[in-house]
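User: Please predict structures.

Assistant: First:
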Amino acid sequence: MAKLRSFRDLYVNELKDLYSAENQILKALPKMAQAASSSQLQQGFNNHLEQTRGHVDRLDRIFDRLGAKPTGKKCKGVEGLIEEAKEEMMENMEPDVMDADLIVAAQKVEHYEMAGYGSARTHAHLLGEHEAAQLLQQTLDEEGETDKRLTQLAESVINREALNQGENGSTRAR
């Protein structure tokens, strides 16, 4: 790992972490959509896939302005969360329980990203990188909205179906 000699180095390092995270998420979301049995959850994952492409584009714009390369760092936090989700997708779960578990996995990633984007936005402001701060805030807002949509889907439909499935052992018709 490169030595962080300045606050700017810390900022660029955080951006690289986010860039790596977003690219790992781009690979994971189609698998999560495929593992979901709820059409609403599948659509949510597919929508977030498109949104994530926009997140990567914003980060590319920030790196261009900084004259820095976005590569060279692997986000081990998201790597671990995705690995955990992969292991759980291999479990023999009832479909509705799997959907509830996928939401948990997705929200863990969203919360990681929100922490990273919030910190990077604050660092950008302090460094006078106000346009970057606006781009980072836009992504932070989108990550927060995704988290809220996942919560709403979990609380209104998915968790109830998983609970009912577990109580009576039956699977709902699709």
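Second:
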Amino acid sequence: MKDDDHKPDCEVVISEVYLYLDLECSEDRRTLIQKHLDDCSHCLREYGIEHEVKALVARCCGDERAPKELRDRLRLKLNELVVEVETREYLP
């Protein structure tokens, strides 16, 4: 966290994105995370990826809900995942 608990940093927001997506955090926390996502393009991009993964799983699994232990293990693995993006700018 940054100096005050009212401004979550990127690492905290990304670590809580599934709680946010699953509506498993308090309304106050959701508001703080939403504000951060509105202001931070990096976190918004990460949120978008997580949102798409969740939507894909929902489409493939229907209304079934994974056991809590499995969800916890997946969250841990996804938090360990590192995505490297390489960008190149071509100048004429």
